[in-house]
Amino acid sequence: MIELFHIWKQYQKPYWALSDVSIQIHDCDFYFITGPSGSGKTTLLKTIFRETLPTEGQILIKGVNILKIPDNRIYTLRRTMGIVFQDFRLMFHRTVFDNVAVPLQVIGVGRKEIRRRVFSTLQKVNLHQKMWELPSRLSYGEQQRVAIARAVVNNPKIILADEPTGNLDPELAFEIITLFKEINRQGATVIIGSHDRELIRHFGNNILFLQKGKIIGKEAHA
Amino acid sequence: MIEKLKFFLAVTGNNLWQFRTRNIFSVTIICLSFLTVGIFMSLSNNLRATARELSNNMTVAFYLDKSLSAAAVDAVRQEIGRPGFVESVKVVTPDEALERFRAGFPELADIVAGLKANPFPPSIELRVNARASASKEVVAFVDSMKTRPGVTDVLFNRDWVEKMQGFSRLAGAIGAFLGGILILTSFFIISNVVKLNVFSRKNEIEILRLVGATNLFIRIPFWLEGITLGFLGSLLSLGLLFIVINLFPVYLGASLGALQELLRFRYPDLTQAVILLCGGAATGFIGSATSVSKFLKV
Fold first, then answer.
1. What pTM value is reported for the model?
2. How far, in Å, are A156, B19, B50 from residue B197 at the CA level?
3. Which of the residues A4, A184, B92, B219 could staple to A190 if both were Cys, CB 3.0 to 4.6 A apart?
4. Mind listing the domains of chain B with CATH numbers?
5. If you measure CA to CA, which chain B residue comes closest to A114?
6. Chain A residue closest in CA terms to B205
């Protein structure tokens, strides 16, 4: 379970990027954070993977206060998560295989095991035939699927996605969220920051609405 | 562990290739710096070796009064042969001295033939053993003999040995000074090249951080990069030094005349070569480590 208690975040006075945000996200939830640009979606996600520290508040993940993890141990938190961005953040001079293999290389997985897991993950996102291509030769939709493969190759229990469909046309966006839904069905908690109302209406059963850093509504459907 | 090492080597190789222009520039500067150190080291080696050769053959010639009797000459010979540092003692009679002169300067044969009397005094040649060549004991003994009745003059080649040793030290110091400045330059160049590489790979570093890489995991490829650049630079400098040493006598040797022997280069010995290589690698490592810790906020 991910629990945020009274999170406040200020980058510059007198503006608050987040104002008293408290939420609970249960294991295996498929969770949307939505709101207009500048509402605090990205900041909220960044606090969860500790890219940024809140000015006030507490964040517990499986009961552990992640704000108390020393800077040089943040990698232990990041290894339990998969993170996807709107701009994909791929290494464009390295192959699709290399990109997806990075999280496994970081933890020292053997070469054979890396090959097996990367291939099987790329099969899931239907990119196994383009394993040796450079990302620059793939379409935007395919590039985002590479980023998703990289996020899930390590079987993390939490997937965070910040505007993962922001650069994609509606059809591809639908395809990508379906992929996240599939990953969620396999047991991962998926949190997506998005302002795409159409997608949220179609897929969202847990939705958090933000505006100017404040929670203005929550929806939970079974 | 092996997998990680392979990963680091692959990333390092990839970076070296990807930014090859700036890396070649960096290797060239390191090479020139270490070549300067190498040239002075080699020159110093030669001067030191020449000084050693001279001190191994250190001789002292005691010129005696012409009027000394054979018994008196023998008494001086016995006195000179007494100290422990004496390797051998030889009495050179005026006739032998004249004969040596004839053999050494055949072009002056006419002058020698015109002499009415033998102008050479008897002398005693003392050879100092190698271990004692630079000792104060020898100097003190020679000084004491200068004032001994019957001894008119003393010729001691110690001054040359000292000059050679002085030149050797000077060459070493110039090499260390110039080399030090140039190595410092190399250090800053490596540091800046690695800094540029860090900036060029900011996106990749960001990705590594997000997937849970440790600080060490991110830093190691940059360290390896610096070490490789430094090592390659110093290795190349050893190769160039070899060429310089072999080409120097061919192109400049003859024009130096008598100085040729003194300015001859000797290739660095194995220890010196290893020191140069390790120095290159260390310069590279320190340069990159400084840069990485300063500019890679991980």
1. 0.69
2. 31, 7, 47
3. A184
4. 2-53+162-295 (no CATH), 59-156 (3.30.70.3040)
5. B3
6. A91
